[in-house]
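Troubleshooting: if your tokenizer reports a length mismatch, compare your output against this known-good record of 320 residues.
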Amino acid sequence: MTHRSYSALLVLSAALAACNGQVLDVGSTGQPLVQGNGGGGPVPIATLTRVPVTMTSDGQNLYWTDDTTAVVEMPVQGGTTTTVVSPCSLQFLAVDSTNVYFIRALQLNEVPKKATTELVISDGSGSVTAAAVRSGQAFWAETPNQHPMLVAVKSVSVTDRVTSPVAEFPNETMHPPFQMGVTSHTVFLATARGPLTAFSLNGGPPDGGSPQTLGSSPCGILLSDGGAAYCIPPGGPVTRTGDDGMTIVLTTVTSGTAAALDETYLYFGDNPASGGMVLKVPKLGGTPTVIAREEATALAVDDTAIYWATPKGSIRRLLK
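Known-good structure output:
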């Protein structure tokens, strides 16, 4: 794989930013929630005493972390909730066809679905601060125990448990990565205060230096798919950066309360002075659409529905 340079980053604006910043609201005036393509409006599927912070779905079950730092499981139609594990880190939660992944005690862990025995899959050589799962590989960023001024990125096959180094570089910001996105060719990292950075998955940072800086705003929420990373800042433009180094603006100012991806759309929560909203925007650019008028603390999406949690502990399900 030839290293792709991000120094000549091309910034484009999607139709929203290039024109007048309009947002399509498909709801009716006075209606707090809107109707999905599946018919009917959002259905409340749970009322919780603890508010979900991070949420994901595998199409059969919802998984979330709450403010007790527990990972909780529930059928997507609603029903009995089950604590999978507790405690764990709030900023990372992922599922695939067989396992649930989370950070616990500064290590990356997995637990098979419908099981209770967890397994540490990071190698224990440092403190894990961020992670991602893609195509049968689990990735993590860590502060090495023997070299606390560095950031190390590693991966492990979730089938044969073979760990491989990806990159190691100086931690110039003094803030460890807290979110990670991995595409087919690129690793993206976000810190609590610094801008989004990236380097080649196969080649590492150029010349053994630091990752390339992308933009200037911190990335409050970082998501990725096979070809791009999506940065949802606490205030500022929501962007998509592809493997080719091209960044487009998907929408303008957002408070970035939650986010999720499917094959076509980026879904995100916003909480302006006029009231909370859940929106979707095409991943390749277009006009954002309001799909619900209430604040979301966590979002998830699968092939059939969109899910979000409210600050009062309700979970909604809206068919696509």
